[in-house]
Please model this.
Amino acid sequence: MTEEKKKLLHEISSLLCQAYNELIENNQVSFPLYDEQVFKIDTVVKTVYASYFGFVPYPTEKDRAAAFFCLIIKDHVVTDGNKSLATIWLEIYCNSFSLKIKDGVLIDQLAVSVEAEKDLSLQKLVQVVKTVLFE
Model:
């Protein structure tokens, strides 16, 4: 990726890429990040922080945490390790914003459930995940 394109990435996209690279270093995923995956990650980040004519779909930190979790999994942003990346990012994000996940929530099982869900709209899925995680 050119230096000019790297400058256009959202700061959080770079952090997500670093998290994925840690998965590679720990042999938890098999494929490196290519430009296409980096841009998919950046699209997810920009979607989570988007505003549409004054409407903000994910207005709170809890909404954004759930949205990141769901979008990383559902949009298959990387070739291998979407659920792992979503799980690690959820932990990083929650620690960064002092969000406490409810006791007893099994994040790995939640990730599998999000991936398998085919009937709910993305917005509804994000709200369900937020309720499971925080409320």
DSSP finds seven helices and no strands in the chain. Helices lie at 3-8, 11-25, 35-48, 61-74, 82-96, 107-116, 122-134.
